[in-house]
């Protein structure tokens, strides 16, 4: 299952990082999907930063940076991927 947790606010190609404001909880180790007009990839979150400081998780309303493995574009949807029904209800 997938649930939108934000939209790409910006993509920094030189460092491979997206920024977004979260609509739900996201933790290191969670799986995300970045999907847009010409973008569609899934990856595990290896690191999250808030104001250039590493954190293990972030909550709704936090503006975060995530290192990504592929190119993304402003406005792309960021979805949290899970197989757990209980986990989906928390988002």
Number of strands: 11
Our estimate of the beta-strand percent is: over 45%
String of helices and strands = EEEEEEEEEEEH
Number of helices: 1
Gross morphology: globular
Which labels suit this protein?
about 90 residues; four-stranded antiparallel beta sheet; globular
Question: Can you walk me through this structure?
Answer:
The chain is mostly beta strands. The protein has a single domain (2-76), classed as Translation factors (Elongation Factor Tu (Ef-tu), domain 3). It contains 1 helix and 11 strands.
Topology:
Blueprint lengths: L1 E6 L2 E3 L4 E5 L4 E2 L3 E5 L4 E5 L3 E3 L2 E3 L1 E2 L4 E5 L9 E5 L3 H6 L1
Antiparallel strand pairs: 1-11, 2-3, 3-10, 4-9, 5-6, 5-11, 7-8, 7-10
């Amino acid at each position: 299952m997938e649930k939108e947790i934000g939209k790409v606010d910006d993509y920094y190609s030189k460092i491979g990082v997206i920024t977004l404001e979260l609509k739900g909880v996201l933790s290191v180790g969670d799986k995300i999907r970045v999907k847009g007009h010409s973008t569609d990839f899934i990856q595990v979150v290896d690191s999250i930063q808030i104001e250039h400081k590493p954190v293990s998780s972030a909550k709704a309303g936090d503006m975060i940076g995530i290192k990504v493995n592929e190119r993304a574009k402003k406005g792309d949807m960021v979805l949290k991927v899970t197989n757990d029904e209980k986990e989906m209800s928390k988002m």
